[in-house]
Amino acid sequence: MHLRVALERLRERFGVNVKSQPPTIGYQETIRQSITQRAGHKKQSGGHGQFGDVVLEVKPMPRGGGFESRKVVGGAVPRNYIARWKRAWSTDCCAGRSVFP
Predict the structure, then answer these.
(1) pLDDT for 12 beyond 90
(2) How far is C-alpha 10 from the geometric centre of its chain's CA atoms?
(3) CA 38/CA 57 separation, integer angstroms
(4) How, if at all, do strands 35-43 and 50-58 pair?
(5) What pTM value is reported for the model?
């Protein structure tokens, strides 16, 4: 928004036409080594409670290999959550963004 206003002022006040383009990404993060992370969730407040165990293993792939999900196990996770997670992860990985919680 601010850039657009500045370009309009340059054009109207000084008669200068300026070409602009979106900035390019200076760098993209790359996964260089394998890592395994384990996290658990336990909640007991009367009744049955909740329990979850997640093991995330991230490994580098060949350049341009993209994203691959190999194994999702567990019967209590709805399939639409898994599909949404894969879609979000693949778009972030392809964009070169770090995915920190």
Answers:
(1) yes
(2) 37
(3) 9
(4) antiparallel
(5) 0.44
